[in-house]
């Protein structure tokens, strides 16, 4: 990259800010949610004097108010391939593969986000990106009609495509080109009140699945939610009704813990919006569409494969005991069953359940000048010469994502589709294999161990990722 090119991190920051402003204008309740989250975060920091320096040490405080994730739903392989190129300009790569069809949502997905530690600290903007699985539409005639509708649309502006090509030719974009790119790319995510289908076609798509109607019936994959990060999602959940916001009944993910893990999410219910359907005589027919909502998240520690297996077992046990729709009883069962997982960082580390970032302490630096230090990270931790902090989970949970989608699509919960893995088809459409999120966390942990040893004057090792 030459000095004349704008850094991808700066393009990503410009884009996420522009997206947030656009969505605030389109969905005013999202602005109210942002205000609530900011108030809750300020209250949490004011009440816990130790939290602020801890977040600063972990590199989380500076990114807290910059942190958003969005979600879009695409209709074709070509759209997915091009959106990958769009996000690459912003320094975002596909991470993970999520098959939501097992939870009754006919899509599979990846998350575009930064994968470099420095980039994550600057702006961790993520977009959960789903591709409609048209083969899951049982009606062959409707499936063919949906394919034809999607094939006829172009969700990218001509200038955005030209700037993509220019970026690839030049190896980057200038400051002026970067600003133009943000403006043009934003059009793909903008809400369009005019549907591209008739009310009759919309209803048939809707009857097949509400999400299918949302993906197929419009000229673009309007951003369907944006998500700020909070330090206390339970306080946000309780505060939403007080500000005129109707939240979903259950917070998705693990229960409240002293040591948060993975991801907890909630949302306000999707809005009914006026839509103009295509009329047979050229005159629009007025109707209603429900899809867009506001979401909030609280992020915790990334779990190792062993930790994820434990989490999945406990979550499944809670859901088997009490349906998630039975809110108070389910939350009680969740809290009770998750007592089986340690709720302190030392216990999580000793059992190999979470990933941690290690760093030398002042006591370690002082000891390095006067004594021979042990060469293992466990011994250094035991003596207080190295400290450890949980690595924040940057990704998503398929059960939680499906739960958020279903709660905002309305109607009864959908049955799971017959298991038909489609990962290879998704990867082919994407144009590359998604990064393995667990490998990214393991690399971060291993790099921090090596750096800690080097900082204390010990031979920098190449430690293997924590075994599962």
Structure annotation, total helices? 20
CATH architecture of the largest domain: Roll
Radius of gyration equals 23 Å
Cα shape: globular
What is the distance, rounded to the nearest whole angstrom, between the alpha carbons of the first and last residues?
38 Å
- Please give the share of residues in helix: 40-55%
The CATH superfamily of the largest domain is identified as Uncharacterised protein PF07063, DUF1338
Please summarize the sheet with the most strands: 5 strands, mixed
* CATH fold group of the largest domain: 2,3-Dihydroxybiphenyl 1,2-Dioxygenase, domain 1
Structure, explained:
This protein is α+β, with helices and mostly antiparallel strands and 468 residues long. Helices cover 46% and strands 14% of the residues. The model is unreliable at 407-414 and 463-468 (pLDDT under 50). Helix 5 crosses helix 19 (423-430) and helix 8 (158-170) packs antiparallel against helix 9 (175-186). The protein is built from 20 helices and 11 strands. The two termini are 38 Å apart. The radius of gyration is 23 Å and the shape is globular. Strands 2-3-4-1-5 form a 5-stranded mixed beta sheet. The chain has 3 domains: 8-300 and 394-435, 2,3-Dihydroxybiphenyl 1,2-Dioxygenase, domain 1 (Roll), CATH 3.10.180.80; 303-352, no CATH class; 356-390 and 436-468, no CATH class.
